[in-house]
Please model this.
Amino acid sequence: MNFGCLIERFYLELTRAGVGGINSVAEQYLAADVKWCVAHPVNDLSGRAQVIEQFLKPLLNALPDLERNPIIALSDRHECSTSEENVTENDEGKYWVDGTGYFVGTFANCLFDIPATKRSLYLRYTEMVRIENGKIKECYLIPDFIDAMNQAGVNPLRDSLGHAGQILPPATQDGLRRCMNSAPESNKSRQLVLDMLDCLGRYDGKDLKSMDLENYWHSNFMWYGPGGIGTTRGIDGFRAHHQGPFVHSFPDRSVDTKINFIANDNYAATGGWPHMSGTHSVGGWLGLPPSGKELSLRVMDIWRREDDLLKENWVAIDIIDMLMQMGLDVFAQMRELNE
Model:
């Protein structure tokens, strides 16, 4: 079962209705007081009107033939025998759906000042969505705007250290059939992620090997990072292309809050808004000098466990918001470079 069916229907109806029909679709699928938080430059929205004007219309105007292609959707709703396709406005269920995939469409018009290419755009998204009474009550969404800039050839940042480009679905091709049908396996995934996060907090400030990653990560694990960082493979690649530059630049980093923590069999997901904090006290991350500022990080993670180790990790970070806190406006730089 794909627990994201209601969300998929929402975006399908948006495309069918077009910009002129957004209001009626939003009324059908969004709670009147919906909370909708999107990566910078959209940020935190409240109520249908703000969501329509500040996110849905710009998205559909930029990609008028919008199609949403999820690759993972998992939920803390356990009733696997209940088809979400039959969920109605009278459904009293309250549950979260975490997922990732791509918005796909012809990049016909500018998207938040990212210039249109008139070619296909693959806009990666990662999200946490709360459904209540058959409607979307909360949504936390990180579209990868840096990767969209890369596709448009206007990214003002340095090239990613890792592989830049489309991320892959799970190697097992089962990312859309997630439900908790084995409590022991779900608990195993949850505990492995918690232990791994504790491991990441044991960095001694000197040697990356002070974090015994091999006890938690498969030797050939895939880490699918956001634009600006890229995809890494294996522990050595992870350390060289992401972990090393990050922990050196944010030595006092900590995980602060989480919106949810979902474990479904061999998958797990969590995230926060913000989810982490840390002082940017050392240079090197993204090739930037230290700002000396304490930053809050909007982060989402999805993991796939294989036997006793984590094999794949899909990661979303609102990097542009972090850079704004450092005093660097990526969108302003992009516009200046292309005037």
In short: Residues 79-92 have pLDDT under 50 and may be disordered. Residues 281 and 292 are 5 Å apart (CA to CA). The two ends are 48 Å apart (CA to CA). The chain has two domains: 5-152, 183-337.
